[in-house]
Design brief:
9 helices; 64% helix
């Protein structure tokens, strides 16, 4: 083989590199460039402050809980920093001050509540990827609020039906996936009742009722959009056999994790603010409901930092 093809490819690469360099100032000066401060920057600052506050408690009586909060908020800070750096919006002349919270466990509770509120408020208005990121962070904070010593936290807001009737195909497909996950969760709650003692009856009944409401609303929204709602399977295969109390708790936690992932998928595939809000509330509800079941089954950590996210 001669050297000519390599020489040509090198010249082409150099020329492409020069064009790319020349294009940067043009892109930066384009009228579509957003010069406003990044709305995620205050959330990043708050997450970093929360990590420091939680680590300060790590050596005390509430050390285990503090470490769980620190780890989760560190994961939030990492994800937020990556996104803020990626977009590279102008930095404010003076960083927004992070409100001082009271020390101790009560301070952590208030920090989590504020972080969840900040993230929830931004979800309906942001571009899809960012909306999904903040929905997962809000759910992570909500899951932490159910941990022993940090709870109970605020329940997820009531689901409401979107007023938009004609949804695009991608939103319909995502909602069908969420409906399928709800069908499976209802089946799981019916399965576990034989393996749990009577003191779990209310938790099982409440969980099943919540998923039935979500199923019915999903069917209604899909039907209004002209789609045929996905039907339930005759039976489902649990990820692991259910043989006792611990494995029953684990399969419920798994079902809640699956529904969280499916509802995050809805957030990721729609620009409709009302449908996003419906999906966000379902995601948060599943994250909160999963925490005590994960604790009962002995899973670590008791709640994932970013519910619904892969891995």
């Amino acid at each position: 083989m001669t050297g000519r093809p390599t020489d040509l490819s090198r010249r082409g690469a150099l020329r492409a590199g020069v064009l790319a360099v020349l294009a940067v100032p043009l892109a930066a000066c384009s009228p579509g460039y957003d010069e406003s401060p990044d709305p995620l920057a205050p959330l990043l600052a708050a997450a970093q402050a929360d990590v420091s506050a939680a680590k300060a408690l790590a050596g005390g009586n509430d050390g285990e809980v503090a470490v769980q909060v620190a780890d989760a908020r560190a994961a939030h800070a990492t994800a937020l920093k990556s996104e803020v750096d990626r977009l590279n919006r102008p930095k404010p002349t003076a960083p927004a001050p992070v409100a001082a919270a009271e020390p101790g466990l009560d301070g952590l509770k208030k920090r989590l509540a504020e972080a969840r509120k900040q993230a929830e408020q931004l979800v309906p208005t942001l571009p899809r990827y960012r909306a999904g990121l903040l929905a997962s962070i809000a759910a992570g904070c909500a899951g932490l609020q159910r941990i022993d010593k940090l709870g109970p936290g605020e329940a997820a807001a009531t689901l409401t039906e979107p007023t938009t009737k004609q949804l695009p195909a991608e939103a319909v497909d995502a909602l069908q996936q969420a409906l399928a996950a709800e069908h499976a969760a209802i089946w799981v709650y019916g399965l576990v009742s034989a393996f749990l003692p009577a003191n779990f009856d209310k938790a099982v009944a409440d969980g099943a009722a919540e998923h039935v409401k979500r199923r019915e609303l999903s069917v209604k929204v899909l039907s209004a959009s002209g789609a045929t709602p996905a039907a339930p399977e005759a039976a489902y295969v649990p990820p692991k056999p259910v043989t006792d109390q611990a494995s029953a708790a684990a399969v419920i936690a798994s079902a809640e994790s699956d529904t969280a992932a499916a509802w995050l998928g809805v957030v990721d595939h729609t620009d409709d603010a009302e449908l996003r809000t419906m999906a966000l509330r379902a995601l948060i509800a599943s994250a909160r409901r999963a925490t005590p079941w994960r604790q009962e089954s002995g899973e670590k950590p008791p709640t994932p930092a970013m519910p619904g996210q892969a891995g």
